[in-house]
Amino acid sequence: MGTLAGKVALVTGASRGVGKGIALGLGEQGATVYVTGRTESGGPATTLLPGTVQKTAAEVTALGGRGVAIGCDHRDDEQTRRAVQRVLDDAGRLDVLVNNVWGGYEYFWDGTPFWEEAGFWTQPLERWDSAFRAGVRAHYVTSVAAAPTMVAQGAGLIVSVSSEGAAKVDTSVAYGAAKAATDHMIACMAHELRDHGVTAVSLYPGLVRTESVLRAAEYFDLSDSESPQFVGRGVAALAADPEVIRFTGQVVRSSALADEYGFSDPVPR
């Protein structure tokens, strides 16, 4: 039996990539994992990349957890609220919320060579709107919907997937600003949630071998990269730690979590 048997998690943006890897990491520890995304089996394609929420849910179940798929476009606040309510109606609790959904990466699949957007003045303004609407705001709205239950439980873990780009200047302006906003938002949430026993952290993965990264592998040095499920094992380790609140308000890195908790990458490079 996994360390998270009986626990309920919600992972947003989990049709593929880091979100899918996190769902799998939670699933292999026995959690019930609700996964959201826009790409559903039998529905219209939302990107050129593979993956659906139903496929992720099935893989969670195959690993020993229980996967449940919820179609959701987190750019729509009402859809986000309904997704959280679905979890609460079904399970009656929520132990782990992973805010992974994001926007602003459209150049990975819309056919735009990324070097053509090398300066912020060359990028469509929609890149900014997407990063903040589908990213920062979606993380906030989902947390707002989930927090009352966690506060009532007196326990819970909120993880927002962020990036080293939050502290760098050699990154996309919209991306860096949105990730920095995410980190500060989580720090402020942690301050308000601490007395209620709820932990909130920002998570920095390393370079992750997502479908989009592998599609553009010639532009990356993958020698020190991580599989998506490695990131998931870090989240699962946090969720199983009875003293996780010692990390609240902080940035945690997947590589540092591996050192802390002693897990390895299930798909080594």
Would you mind describing this structure in some detail?
The chain has eight helices and seven strands; from the N terminus they run E-H-E-H-E-H-E-H-E-H-E-H-H-E-H. The protein has one domain (8-261): Rossmann fold (3-Layer(aba) Sandwich), CATH 3.40.50.720. With 269 residues, the chain is of the alpha/beta class. It has helices at 17-27, 53-62, 77-91, 126-153, 173-193, 211-215, 228-240, 254-261, and strands at 8-11, 32-37, 66-71, 96-99, 156-161, 198-204, 251-253. The mean pLDDT is 93. The chain is 41% helix and 13% strand. Helix 1 packs parallel to helix 2 (53-62), helix 1 crosses helix 7 (228-240) and helix 3 packs parallel to helix 4 (126-153). The protein has a seven-stranded parallel β-sheet, with helices on both faces. InterPro entries: NAD(P)-bd_dom_sf, Sc_DH/Rdtase_CS, SDR_fam. It holds the Pfam family adh_short. This is NAD(P)-dependent dehydrogenase (Short-subunit alcohol dehydrogenase family).
- The helix content, as a percent range, equals 40-55%
- The CATH topology is given as Rossmann fold
List the secondary-structure elements in sequence, H or E.
EHEHEHEHEHEHHEH
What portion of the residues fall into strands of 2 or more residues?
5-15%
- CATH superfamily, called what? NAD(P)-binding Rossmann-like Domain
Return residue spans where pLDDT drops below 50 for at least 5 consecutive residues.
none
Distance between the termini: 28 Å
Determine the mean pLDDT. Answer: 93
Inertia-based shape: globular
- From the coordinates shown, what is the CATH architecture? 3-Layer(aba) Sandwich
- Looking across the biggest beta sheet, what order are the strands in? 3-2-1-4-5-6-7
**What radius of gyration results from the CA coordinates?**
17 Å
Structural class by secondary-structure content: alpha/beta
How many helices? 8
Tally the beta strands: 7
CATH C-level class is: Alpha Beta
Protein name: NAD(P)-dependent dehydrogenase (Short-subunit alcohol dehydrogenase family)
InterPro entries: NAD(P)-bd_dom_sf, Sc_DH/Rdtase_CS, SDR_fam
Organism: Kribbella shirazensis
Family: Belongs to the short-chain dehydrogenases/reductases (SDR) family.
